[in-house]
């Protein structure tokens, strides 16, 4: 950006420092030279249009970066880590998913996440709260081992309080035994 600004300033100074030639009728031999000068003047952009173009390009770059970050955030938030019944150990599928999340977090150092641990509706409130906390901590420990800084993550347990799927079937229970992310 600094180089573009310096180049723009040099261009503006160079354009202002030249005195226009006195206006006289060109001789017959000078006619092609006058046409070439007029064509060159039309081809070079003026300072206002150059600044407007730079502002437009910068706005497009910022919008593309915003869209990229939004897609990354949505990708992280859409992923859930699932657990077996009454377990907090990570499955092989969970490890694969967490490796992808770890890669995203290593690339984007600006992101901080909250890892939310959940359980199904079976068990006491205290037991489920503790199990949800263990699940969130297992995810956090994996990401720390992957290289993500611990101060970029926090964990919280919701136990059975925020089910993803309502119901008393094994299918509903399996969807609620999870850890998910907030960016």
Descriptive overview:
- By secondary structure, the chain is α+β, with helices and mostly antiparallel strands.
- The protein has 6 helices and 4 strands, in the order αααβαβαβαβ.
- It has helices at residues 2-17, 31-43, 47-78, 92-107, 125-146, 170-176; strands at 80-82, 113-118, 153-159, 178-182.
- The chain has a 4-stranded mixed sheet with strand order 1-4-2-3.
- β2 (113-118), α5 (125-146) and β3 (153-159) form a beta-alpha-beta unit.
- α4 (92-107) crosses α5.
- The longest helix is centred in the middle third of the chain and has 32 residues, at 47-78.
- It is elongated and about 75 Å long.
List keywords for this structure.
6 helices; alpha+beta
Summarize the entry for a quick read.
The chain is 58% helix and 11% strand. By secondary structure, it is an alpha+beta fold.
- Overall number of strands: 4
Measured on Cα atoms, how large is the radius of gyration?
31 Å
Terminal residue distance: 30 Å
Helicity level, as a percent range? 55-70%
The helix count comes to: 6
Order of helices and strands: HHHEHEHEHE
Strand content: 5-15%
**Average pLDDT taken over every residue:** 83
